[in-house]
Design goal:
With 784 residues, chain A is an alpha+beta fold. Chain A is 52% helix and 21% strand. Chain B is an alpha/beta fold and 234 residues long. In chain B, strands 6-7-8-3-9-10 form a six-stranded mixed beta sheet, with helices on both faces. In chain B, strands 2-1-4-5 form a four-stranded antiparallel beta sheet, with helices on one face. Classes of the chains: A alpha+beta (784), B alpha/beta (234). Bound molecules: adenosine-5'-diphosphate (ADP) and magnesium ion.
Chain lengths: 784, 234
């Protein structure tokens, strides 16, 4: 089939403005790519989550306790709504493996003789332990991967001071531990934290739990309001040291995934919305311009009997082709970026499997939103132009209407005056260009902001608040005399006690379960910070909450807060909120350790210690600590810092990289289109000036001076807007786990401005070359 | 002879806000089948306005314009579009070719939507441009572009051919070529033809010369014998 004449015109018109077509298509592609990336990753993770929860029988209810006889399980099973109940023993363990000097902590879980019925395991390699083997274990895949362990490897595992050698026979993952974070740690660190499973019998024997359990999980019949189960469950478990039951909502892995989904959702909506609105604006400008240049062609076609709708359709096809190009690039690019992102996620979240694919709904929606953006951009211009009377064809194009500008200095040269008048002739178009450039500046600031914020968080948390080198956790409360023996280890220069207890904090009708930490008033390693990040002494009376927790509870200093201890004395008391603490990571409550111990009706006890260690003697300190039976876990601060950076930085830098490219695309798209259109609109005028003896440079000045004026007004606006965006994103991204501080480093502002200036220079360079090629004779001859 | 157009009391008022421009002040006119008519008058006398109304590009403010039995003044937009598509050929002063289409494709753009058109090649042959089919407008001289425009106008075998200052942008030698093409089409296809000009010399090629001034027809001359465009000088 041969193309109709009109369709040939379509392709030639497209080809004639190919630079602009590409610029717009790329901006569109940017929006579509971010959408496809975020939406398809989100969909893959959500689908996987749903599927694996079902497949691996993820429970609905969870509870931990101190120690209860196995017979208690049948009483739980009788509660209304409960379907299945599984009890198990889990113990903290210290692990050492050959060739790795740092302390590794872990959680070791007992496997029932008949195999688990809830929290099933996905075997990646090897096999499950032989039911009769006492020294076989399986490990989580993150740990195995980090240390390149294969089945057959041996680990030294110390439980309550009793050391045994276990042979790793298999590598597994499970929905329960998609997010593997050591207690008190900030991010997963697969090198120093590990989940292990071994047969229940030998585990219970070495943990002195034979015939007993300390964790219980249950499934609830669908639709049953499981909130109603908390009270009866808690009253059954309380005598056995129950820490309070919770639903999936508070399960660590589930909670982190939920937060991640929220962020992805934001990425799938806000970013594409920004890109697509810029693309719509560009289309509007370019198609609007096309309609102006083709005004007499449109009229001629109508004079010869083409219908208004045929002409409108012709120009809409023009738009749709650009959209199609953008959408195809965007979908392909977004799919690629998404699979990269899914890989990153799979490193952090240990899914048994993650099926990433291009979902047809995502694709369809991507096409729909880009077509929508295009239509909003072009429809109005097209309809207006194609509805115009065909009598226009008879008339020569009328010169544009100019007015004297309100801002005209007597000393202004004619070219400068032309620049000003031209800007003032098109105030709307000029402000839209300005807005587009400001927006891309803002997007750049936003991209840099994430990195600044993470740096600041790390600085605040690890350099100001938690300055210890090592944190040692005991199995349970121990006398603070234990600290003497820690201080006596050569290389330990300072040891400070801290007491942590699970508690429910209540204000009015809101409550939150968290760790209540008792600190020394004069602690120098673990410090509480005020809003200006200055450390302050823990007051002798009352309670302190992190600012976010106080906001969540709706409490302010001076309010009376109810604290219900979930361990030990289980006392309930109201305490005044004395101050809020500025912390960006986690949610905690604090009081003085002596006051907390009185509250607990305990003597001078502690559950963990923070140590300062001579960096040259770290290894010998590790090996001495490993021999102390009371120690359940050792966390290395520098290790935490490193792993924090490793996990977050990979994500953040990838994000920032794409962000810069995308924002640069917008900047080039807007700037290039703005100048290119100015050139085509004014080529006659500029060529006339050349005929009159203006140099190329003077002519380029008229064209690019306008651009420079727009860009330099857009920059400060964009930088300011970027900070507002950052504040907004920080507030939407704030979760129970992280609060993002609104800090933008000067370097980020400078970088953003630089990218915009470079994009401008690039566009100016391309258009400047076109100015050089202005054909004086042709331009004057041809009538527009 | 049968009248293709008959118009009575046609007025056209442009409302410019403060002032009203009376472009046509009650024109009565007829155009007959196969006739060659020249509209002559100074600039601003209303020639283009009248032609636009006859061609269905614009609407009269008052009066009636009939194409055969079809009343253009009461027709809907889509009826006017159909009317132009099937019956009218236009030639404009500034050619108005589509710059991104070749000569042949410019003609095809019209034949594709017409009923029983000639082949685009045939139309180009008629205006003597057979060898320029694949040239773009920018590669053609003004006279050649105008002849492409004529080919485009006549390719549908229009009943009426309306030309608004077809030689206005051309020198006299090139203008003659263009007028010859128009003359030939008028004779060979029998399209009723109206040619606007403000150049009295061109009037010699017409059957009838309609003089316009200030929105009115001042008088009408009948030429005993149509001159060949070759015989015209200006
Ligand atoms: N679109 C328009 N708006 C206002 N006035 C117009 C318009 N078109 C034509 N006129 C006026 O109508 C009158 C007749 O114009 P026109 O028919 O173009 O004259 P001619 O073709 O004979 O030179 C002129 O005074 C002209 O200024
Ligand atoms: Mg005229």
């Amino acid at each position: 089939m041969t193309l109709s004449a009109l369709n040939r015109k379509l392709f030639r018109d497209l080809w004639a403005v190919r630079g602009q077509v590409i610029a717009i298509a790329l901006v569109l592609a940017g929006g579509i790519a971010t959408y496809v990336m975020a939406a398809s990753t989100l969909r893959a993770m959500r689908d996987t989550q749903t599927r694996m929860y079902r497949e691996f029988r993820f429970p609905d209810l969870f509870a931990s306790l101190k120690r209860a006889p196995l017979s208690l399980a049948s009483r739980v099973r009788q509660l209304p709504g409960i379907i299945e109940v599984e009890t198990r023993t889990a113990a903290p363990a210290n692990i050492s493996l050959a060739g790795f000097s740092q302390p590794v902590s872990g959680l070791i879980i007992g496997l029932p003789a008949s195999g688990p019925i809830l929290n099933l395991l996905h075997l990646h390699a090897g096999r499950l332990p032989d039911p009769n083997a006492d020294h076989e274990a399986i490990v989580s895949d993150g740990f195995a991967q980090a240390h390149k362990l294969n089945p057959g490897f041996r680990l030294d595992v110390t439980i309550e001071g009793r050391r045994q050698t276990l042979t790793v026979v298999g590598i597994v993952s499970t929905p329960e531990f998609t997010y593997q974070i050591a207690p008190g740690s900030l991010v997963p660190d697969f090198t120093t934290y590990c989940i292990l499973w071994m047969n229940a019998k030998p585990l219970q024997a070495s943990f002195r739990m034979t015939g007993a359990f300390n964790q219980i999980a249950a499934t609830v019949s669908p639709g049953f309001p499981f909130e109603n189960l908390f009270a009866p469950l808690d009253s059954l478990l309380r005598p056995y040291g129950g820490l309070g039951a919770h639903a999936r909502k508070e399960q660590v892995s589930h909670r982190f995934l939920t937060e991640e989904f929220k962020q992805l959702e934001m990425m799938a909506t806000l970013f594409p919305a920004m890109f697509l609105s810029v693309a719509a604006f560009l289309l509007n400008v370019v198609v609007g311009r096309l309609m102006t240049t083709q005004r007499s062609q449109i009229a001629t076609l109508k004079a010869f009997g083409y219908t208004t709708s045929a002409i409108a359709w012709h120009f809409l096809k023009f738009t749709l082709l650009i959209v199609a190009i953008g959408a195809v690039i965007g979908i392909a690019g977004g799919f690629q970026m998404g699979s990269g992102m899914a890989r990153l996620y799979k490193d952090v979240y240990r899914f048994p499997y993650l099926e990433y694919g291009l979902d047809w709904r995502v694709t369809l929606f991507a096409f729909a939103i880009s077509a929508l953006a295009a239509m909003t951009g072009a429809l109005f211009a097209v309809l207006k132009a194609s509805a115009e009377s065909p009598a226009v064809a008879m008339q020569p194009a009328n010169p544009g209407h100019y007015r004297r500008a309100w801002l005209e200095f007597p000393g202004l040269s004619q070219p400068s005056r032309m620049i000003l008048r031209n800007i003032l002739r098109r105030p709307v178009k000029c402000s839209l260009s300005l807005a587009g450039i400001a927006l891309s500046t803002a997007i750049l600031v936003l991209g840099g902001f994430w990195i600044d914020a993470v740096d600041f968080m790390v600085f605040a948390q690890l350099r100001r608040a938690q300055t210890e080198d090592l944190a040692v956790t005991f199995f349970g409360p121990v006398s603070s005399r234990a600290l003497y023996s820690l201080r006596s280890i050569p290389g330990v220069t300072l040891a400070e006690p801290s007491r942590t207890v699970s508690a429910r904090i209540r204000f009015e009708h809101r409550s939150f379960r968290t760790g209540l930490q008792g600190l020394e008033p004069s602690a120098t390693l673990r410090r509480l910070l005020d809003d200006r990040l200055q450390p302050f002494e823990v007051p002798s009376q009352g309670l302190l909450l992190t600012g976010h927790l106080a906001t969540m509870l709706g409490a302010k200093p001076g309010d009376l807060i109810t604290v219900e201890l979930l361990e030990g004395s289980r006392a309930i008391r109201t305490l005044p909120l004395t101050a809020t603490v500025n912390e960006y990571i986690g949610i905690s409550a604090y009081m003085r350790r002596d006051a907390l111990n009185r509250f607990l009706r305990e003597s001078d006890v502690t559950t963990s210690a923070n140590l300062r260690v001579d960096p040259n003697r770290l290894d010998s300190v590790y090996s001495r600590l490993r021999c102390i039976p009371a120690i359940a876990g050792i966390a290395v601060r520098s290790q935490a810092l490193q792993s924090f950076y490793k996990t977050l930085a990979a994500q953040m830098l990838t994000f920032a990289f794409f962000n810069t490219i995308l924002a640069g695309t917008i900047a080039v798209g807007v700037v290039y289109n703005t100048v290119r259109i100015a050139l085509s609109e004014r080529s006659r005028e500029l060529a006339s000036l050349r005929v009159l003896g203006y140099t190329r440079g003077e002519v380029a000045y008229i064209l690019l001076g306008e651009l420079a004026l727009v860009v330099f007004s857009a920059l400060p606006l964009g930088l300011w807007l970027g900070r507002q965006f950052s504040a907004y994103f920080a507030s939407t991204a704030q979760t129970e786990l992280f609060r993002i501080p609104v800090v933008v480093a000067p370097g980020t502002y400078a970088f953003s401005a630089l990218v915009i200036l470079l994009s401008t220079l690039l566009s100016a360079f391309i258009v400047g070359r076109q100015v050089n090629h202005l054909d004086l004779v042709e331009v004057l001859k041809a009538r527009e | 002879m049968q009248a293709v157009f008959h118009a009575h009391g046609v007025t056209k008022v442009y409302d410019m806000g403060e002032v009203q421009v009376h472009a046509l002040r009650g024109v009565d006119i007829e155009l007959f089948a196969g006739e060659m008519m020249v509209l002559l008058g100074p600039s601003g006398s209303g020639k283009s306005t009248l032609l636009n109304i006859l061609g269905g590009l614009d609407r009269a403010s008052g009066g009636h314009v009939f194409y055969r039995d079809f009343d253009l003044t009461t027709a809907s937009d889509s009826q006017l579009t159909q009317y132009r598509r099937l019956h009218v050929g236009f030639v404009f002063q500034f050619y108005n070719l589509i710059p991104s289409l070749t000569a042949l494709e410019n003609v095809a753009a019209v034949t594709e939507i017409a009923r029983d058109p000639m082949k685009p090649e045939e139309a180009l042959d008629l205006v003597g441009l057979a060898d320029r089919r694949h040239h773009f407008p920018s590669q053609l001289s003004g006279g050649q572009q105008q002849r492409v425009a004529i080919a485009r106008a006549i390719a549908k075998r229009p009943t009426v051919l309306l030309c608004d200052e077809p030689t206005g942008a051309l020198d006299s030698e090139t203008g003659v070529l263009v007028l010859e093409a128009i003359d030939r089409v008028n004779r060979e296809l029998g399209s009723a033809t109206a040619v606007i000009t403000h150049n009295a010399d061109i009037a010699g090629m017409a059957d009838r010369v309609v003089h316009m001034s200030n929105g009115n027809i001042s008088h009408i001359d009948h030429n005993q014998k149509r001159k060949q465009p070759r015989e015209l000088h200006w």
